[in-house]
Amino acid sequence: MRKLHITSVKPGDVIAKSIFQENGNVLLGIGVQLTPRYIERLVQLGIDSLYIQDKHTEDIMPEDVIRDETRKEAVDAVYKTMTTLMDQPQIKRRTSAPDFGSSFQKVFREIFQDLSSRKDILVNLSSLHVLDGYLFHHAVNVAILSGVVGMAKGYNQQQMMELGIGALLFDIGMTQVPKELWTMPTELSAEERQRVQYHTEEGFNILRNQHNISVVSAHCALQHHERYNGTGYPRQLSENNIHEYARIVAIADVYDALVSPRPFRKSYSPSDATEYLFATGNTYFDLDLLKLFLQHVAIYPIASTVLLSTGHSGVVSKVNSLAVNRPTIRILTNEDGSEVASTYEIDLYDKEWMSVTIVKTL
């Protein structure tokens, strides 16, 4: 399969990877043939890229770091909890919601088990979802990315659970913000921005009163918008005054936000997102944690379509954990854009191809 921007797919193309609704259920499944109406509807729902079946890349299979079943269960749990809080905001004033903490312990335990079963973790977030599901799918992606960093740091099981639950629920305060504010396609006013920023304190107040959720997990909600140089909010904390869990979640939050389409902008490619993050090391983010994070993220994920400096284009067939910016590319087109007579692969890590670079993701 290969991943293409929605503007490059055409009627007759066949979906190779399911597209999910906001609650984690399948919207369009594998094997569905696209029609003009389907494509138009996907654009309306905010889907900006698709995995399609292709005879030249049928053996290329991007694999998420967690199982589809685990992801669905996690998204469903986040969706039910957050929508309940949106519909019944008075719950936040209760001492606790029944089984709130224990249910998310179970959810992250499954994520942790999936991550632990992998020998070498190089994250390739390949799940596609509608724009309205961003808040719920984003929470699960942030938990995955944060969990990878926690494992790389050698966290023990208790630390992993504290970080994981904090990451899954870091944005729970957004349930108290009017939806039109966090889905607004235009710039917010100063008053609206202040209202949105208050979600960090509201999230902390919700989590600190829940059974089986530690205060340090709740600090992921409170501090994930603090910045390493003290320019963040709500308290303008800096450096080690920000809890390490929150510093990890902050990196994961911004990365997944950048690579996701939003109402006010298109998604960034993983390579552009990682370049932005690295440029902010020890300004917005802890540089040591950032380096650890970037060691475990696929800059050019498997099945990505890329343009090379030679003018050829192709699909990423393998990634190299030793050099994440030098994957193996299956060449599909010549310099003039014509299809190659027979596909072949080049390993950009090989000395023979060291002068060749990836210009952009298509």
TrEMBL record:
Highest taxon listed in the record's lineage: Bacteria
Pfam families in UniProt: HD_5 (PF13487)
Residues in HD-GYP domain copies: 104-309
Cross-referenced Gene3D superfamilies: Hypothetical protein af1432
SMART domains found in the cross-reference section: HDc (SM00471)
UniProt cross-references to CDD domains, sorted A to Z: HDc
SUPFAM superfamilies tied to this protein: HD-domain/PDEase-like
HD domain span: 135-258
PANTHER family in the cross-refs: CYCLIC DI-GMP PHOSPHODIESTERASE PA4108, CYCLIC DI-GMP PHOSPHODIESTERASE PA4108-RELATED
Protein name, per record: Uncharacterized protein
Native species: Brevibacillus brevis (strain 47 / JCM 6285 / NBRC 100599)
